[in-house]
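Next comes a concrete protein, fold included:
___
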Amino acid sequence: MATLTLAELATITGGTLHGDKNAEVSMVAPMDKAQKGHVTFLSNPKYAKHLEQCQATVVMVKEAQKEQFSGNVLVVADPYVAFARVAQALDTTPNPATGISPSAVIADDATLGTNVSVGANAVIESGAVLGDNVIIGAGCFIGKGAKLGNNTKLWANVSIYHQVIIGDDCLVQAGSVIGSDGFGYANERGEWIKIPQLGSVRIGNRVEIGASTTIDRGALDDTVIEDNVILDNQMQIAHNVHIGYGTAMAGGTIVAGSTTIGKYCIIGGASVINGHIEIADGVTITGMGMVMRSIEEKGVYSSGIPLQPNKEWRKTATRVHRIDEMNKRLKAIEKQLGQKT
């Protein structure tokens, strides 16, 4: 178990400590459950009510809240960011693999950097290139000519198809598939003719991809995920999609082919984004958003229907089906009133 002094916490977070610099913590905990040896934080003012009874060894707060806690206080610019950095420092998650497993199958002409680990039953095919400190979990498949940058980590059973390029410091969670065929077919008199997907997938640096997410290779050009993108679990990114720097997308989202998503976008869970459209930089789409056309201006967009009691929802649905009829009646009434005036 990792242990840090409060002086070390101050260095990690860039904060100012008010209290015992030699006190130690080994775990991050919620404010209302924290005990001695724990570090907690206040980022949402509604939880300030727990400060008085909090038993944590230290609380990370903004300057305005430092007098609200009688124990050790670490004043930081952003308590939530500080929490993230401290959690990283105290993280005890094991690596997906250590060393080269005897059961791993590695092609003779694959290139492995220094300090590479490959788990049991993993397969690394001809021409693949792995950078320094790469970790490949058990059961992974790295296709021909694929390239993984320094410090990139794959959890178990990840499939990286041929010619896929992944940058430095990336993390891919278990069961994800990168570089599978895009959904490309021509139809000749009712018969489907497969279009070979001749592009690849290019993923930048510091990208994280959740479990069981699929990113298809391009039909002609590549599918592109730029630096600092985070993708949640169970997502479908279709062929030739381009996702811009710093965008975050929550679980269950589906993006159809040849769509471009700008920089610093936030896409809520279970959203569906149509193909061949463009989304501007800085767009937020709330959960269950259905994006049918391009979005040209930064802002917050919503389309999901909030939950209602079933009886109210039935009434709403019935009225929606009658909108066209109601619109015709309204126009008729307006016409009659106009004639009378």
